Amino acid sequence: MFKLFSGTANPALSQEVAKKMGVSLAGGEVVRFENSEIRVRISEDVKHHSCVLIQSTSNPTDTHLMELFFFCDALRRQEAREVIGVIPYFGYARQDVQHRDGECVSVNVIIKFLESIGFYKIYTVNLHDEATEGVFSIPFKNINAFPVLAQEVRSYLSHQTNLTNLTDTVSVVSPDHGGVERARKFSDVLFGHTSHTIAVVEKKRDLKQIHQSKALDLYGDVKGKIAILVDDLVTSGGTLIHAAKLCMDRGASQVLAAVVHHDFGPEAPNLIQSSSITRFITTNTIALKDEQKFEKLHEVSIAALISEEIKHLK
Questions:
Q1: pTM of the predicted model as reported, rounded to 2 decimal places
Q2: What is each CA distance from 34 to 31, 67, 68, in whole angstroms?
């Protein structure tokens, strides 16, 4: 038997997973003190049980990470047989290489914490770079949410006219060279075959200025087509917005965005809403605040993906 716990980062997603699994969330308490410290307490017997903890490490990333670590420690102290972490959004995943001399490789540090604190296995959803999987020395699985997004985009497009042949009327676009493989995985599901091409935006990022990038050129055909920008996450929105404008300048009839993680900065929702992007389709790996909601945004749940992965523990 297993017990399912939820951190405070995204309790709605945890509740949805629990409902699909036919279980109730186990009891845990998180206390936040005035000096910003937190305390985690497990309020039921977990001895000899496998325990699954769902906790995104989204903004505020450091706070949610500490809560994740404390939950694991508390469960281990109560003699849980094993603790499995489900981290739908893995904070610091983009800091996976030394871009400049003197920088730390932050994601490696987080992985060392997870391993040393006693997690038995980690699940994530669309980790920024699949190569990061090789850093883990404990069991690890990266769940792919692009099929869910592709199916949602296909449903949205089915309401458009003259879209009987998606290959001829739709162009999937990667907003940078690093996302080509992500765009291909998305396209395979959207089109239902692998005999397709994708377009790629050439992007230049300013490493000295955070959230600053520029779309330089577009390789591929989008003229007269619906361009679908595919990415794993968005923070400032700059990359997507610049890529969308470039697609429209090159003759696209409209631009949709399919993004797994909406790790929004404060200005991103308004910027995307006022951009040339027609529809922004994303998942609920991160809890969406009221002030982050906007008309063009459509959120689809990944609860079924998570429950499917952990149901074997039942």
A1: 0.92
A2: 10, 16, 20
Compute CA distances 174 → 48, 53, 153, 300, 311, whole Å.
46, 33, 15, 21, 33
The boundaries of every CATH 3.40.50.2020 domain in the chain are 2-144+304-313, 146-284
Q: Is there a catalytic annotation at residue 214?
A: no
Locus of tokens 């307490």: 41
The 10 Å CB-count burial string (b at 16+, else e) for 37-60 is: eeebebeeebeebbbbbbbbbbbe
Cα distances from 231 to residues 2, 246, 253, 259, in angstroms, run: 34, 16, 20, 5
CATH of 2-144+304-313, picked from 3.40.50.2020, 3.30.1370.60, 3.40.190.10, 3.40.50.880, is: 3.40.50.2020
What is the tens place of the pLDDT at every residue in 113-156? Answer: 999 999 999 999 999 988 888 899 999 999 999 999 999 999 99
Cis ω on the peptide bond leading into residue 60 (within 30° of 0)? yes
How far apart CA 303 and CA 308 sit, in angstroms, is 8
Q: Which of 141, 185, 203, 204 is catalytic?
A: 203
